[in-house]
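Handout, section B. The chain below has 194 residues.
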Amino acid sequence: MSPAGAGQAGLSWAAGNSGPGPAKSLQKGLVASVLRRWPGSIALAVTCLLGASCGGSPEPVPVAPPYTDPGFAEAGDYRLHYALTMTSDLPSEIAGSYGIVPRRNLALLTITLTPRVSTGATRVGASEIEATAVTLTGEWNLLALARHDEAGGPSWLATVTVRHRVPVTIDIRARATAASPEIHVRLTREFRLE
């Protein structure tokens, strides 16, 4: 092999064992082959892509429906009331009376039991009560409910850490007496921490 041929061979090897000419003609031939086989499919795909990139409806995005959870559940002769409120929304005297320091990402779960039919007693005790926070990944974390005896009857409180726009689900189970049916409720809320 001559020195000129050796240099040319080295160039071909470094360029991927093919010179620039054959690679370009191969690419053109491949593209032409694809266009001949599927001209309608490619035209349809391009049309869909262009149509999708043109934007959506000119109308504004509808407002989310208001939160409409009833805030209670019933079974037998009893009604379970519940609420999940951001501690930053509580008046400072109420938060302070329960020993809660309001935080931007802290919610307060409040649970009370009452008779379904008013008998003079506003709230009643519970033989069993528990609340569990359920994460998006399915983990169950038992909440530490604290009983607070007040003039109207007992309330159970627990704090729950929340995240911006991440739904939090609370599973509550309670019985007013050992003989009464279980009241079971599951509430899901999402908070915007802005």
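Note. Helices lie at 3-14, 20-37, 39-52, 92-97. Compare this with the example in section A.
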